[in-house]
Write a structure and sequence with these properties.
By secondary structure, this protein is an alpha/beta fold. The chain folds into three domains: about 180 residues, Rossmann fold (3-Layer(aba) Sandwich); about 150 residues, Rossmann fold; about 80 residues, no CATH class. Helix content is about 35%, strand content about 25%. It is built from 18 helices and 20 strands. The chain has a six-stranded mixed sheet with strand order 6-7-8-3-9-10, sandwiched between helices. Strands 16-17-18-13-19-20 form a six-stranded mixed sheet, with helices on both faces. A hairpin with a 2-residue loop joins β4 and β5. α4 crosses α5.
Amino acid sequence: MKKPPACEPLLELRGVAKAFGQVIALRDSTLALYPGSIHALVGENGAGKSTLVKIIAGLYRRDSGDFRYDGETVDFSTTAESKAAGIAVIYQEPTLFPDLSVTENIFMGRQPRGRLGRIDRGAMRAEVESLFTRLGVVMDPDRTADGLSIADQQMIEIAKAISLDARVLVMDEPTAALSGVEVERLFQVARALRDENRALVFISHRFDEVFALCDTITVMRDGSYVSTRAISETDPDSVVAEMVGREITDLFPKIETEAGEPLLVVEGLTSPGIFNDISFTVRAGEIVGLAGLVGAGRSEVARAVFGVDSYRTGTVTVAGTKVAKNKPTAAMRAGLALVPEDRRKQGLVLDSSVGRNTTSVILDSLAKLGIVTTGAENRAARPWAEKLEVKANALTTIAGTLSGGNQQKVVLGKWLATDPRVLIIDEPTRGIDVGTKSEVHRLLSTLASQGMGVLMISSELPEVLGMADRVVVMHEGRITATIDREDATQENVMRAATHSSSTESEHAA
């Protein structure tokens, strides 16, 4: 593992504090980034990582403490100042313009122009093709961003940052929705940028990635600096103990439960060009894992089952009742709930409160004479906020100000408040810290033990193997295998996900 060079830090923050009214986001934060190093920044959701990054990016201004860049004291008041200084940030959630092309998104605000002052679209396209070749990405530079998967959106953000030739590159959960092959491509690019003497920050809850990629690690807890060490001088257990202040003994607290009657039966679901002949069953008390590489069609199947997307043929039945297609309200009445992959766009109203978001799908049940009071909303929302340990100052906290993991908890609470018979949850712990992962897993296992059916879509193979009673594997829109828990291994799931010649397809009953 490459060690940071012995030189002055390129970027340094010391004793930085930041508060939003009565909410203290940072108390005493310290971070030093060196050229030629990849620096991991870790901590639970709410530890202050995102706030620290936003100060570096010029979105927030610190209340106190020192901020030095390239040997000078700085105080970025805008993102433009930070970018001009050579700092690029890839945020956890993509921020693309959906109606613009991939190329236009990458060059937004800095389009090259020809001799007559016109935008040089040929030069832009050639640069994007070069960037994609460097990243190992196959994508049409001329297609619009609308409809791209999270993985593709992340790759565009990475290409945009690299095109800025930044000296400091901050990556906030960049691999959360990437396949193993895409992660390794990203790592190759990150190492190449490090070897060009750039400073990189890597924020991730995936410790296997942190220890595989990074040279140095800084731990934060409750808005404060805890420690900085060389990766070679620590281990995952020590990092977790510093992050959470307690020991995590069981990341996958699976409760063994005997499966009951079929709750969700999907038969022959087909949407040409997206998925074909999808059939599986989720029984009461059962967690079924839907696995596969990014682009296999897992999320598309979930959205079709819930009625968000249409399909041409096939049926969806919940507890013996056929559900009308393309009608989410009918799916909800039947007892289905869907926690989507993209929480910000599909799961939350960002400028509404935690309480309002949590109760948004059960308002009718809270109304008296057609009126829903804030008190009624908060009484209904509080049990879920407490159960999921949402780190918010109050239920009136605006959801958009929460960390990514806490936003995920609010979305989960919103759908659990509907008391569903079947919970479909897409990437349940994406962007969630290790301590909260264990709590989410425990919650899912408890819900299943109480008779709920759970369809869990996850790109994290250890999560699938640790939590699922059966694993349904997809490849290019088709089910290639259904594997019982006792027979599921990383090897046979990946064989089915890549549809190697040795894989035998086996469909669920």
